[in-house]
Amino acid sequence: VLKADWSKATDGLPTFSNNDIMSHLNPIIPLLAEGERVIIVETSTEYTPPFNQNLTGIGGRKFVDIVMTRPRFAPQLCWDGIGCGA
């Protein structure tokens, strides 16, 4: 079972709830030991090509990247002002 200790979003996007994590991220998170934590960073950006789509065949698109890493020097990472889970 996956659960969030905390979630931080920017640019008006919503934070992840535990249900969001189970539905959106569960398929891509590697198998973890019980009680293990990972830091997950999801970034995205809209791309508009500098040239006409008819000329290049490349249209605008949204790039999304999700990166996971284990904390190296502490069992978990806390975000200032949000707090940590149990």
What's the short version?
The protein has two helices and two strands, in the order H-E-H-E. The chain has helices spanning 18-25, 53-56, and strands spanning 39-47, 61-69.
What features would you describe in this structure?
- It is a single chain.
- The chain is α+β, with helices and mostly antiparallel strands.
- The protein has one domain.
- Helix content is 14%, strand content 21%.
- The protein is built from 2 helices and 2 strands.
- It is elongated, with a radius of gyration of 17 Å.
- The two termini are 15 Å apart.
- The mean pLDDT is 84.
Secondary structure topology:
Elements: H1 18-25, E1 39-47, H2 53-56, E2 61-69
Antiparallel strand pairs: 1-2
List keywords for this structure.
two-stranded antiparallel sheet; 14% helix; alpha+beta; 2 helices; 86 residues
Strand order of the largest sheet: 1-2
The portion of residues forming beta strands comes to: 15-25%
Overall number of domains: 1
Largest sheet: 2 strands, antiparallel
Q: What's the mean pLDDT score?
A: 84
* DSSP E strands, number: 2
Helix content range of the residues, please? 10-25%
Taking the alpha carbons of the first and last residues, their distance comes to: 15 Å
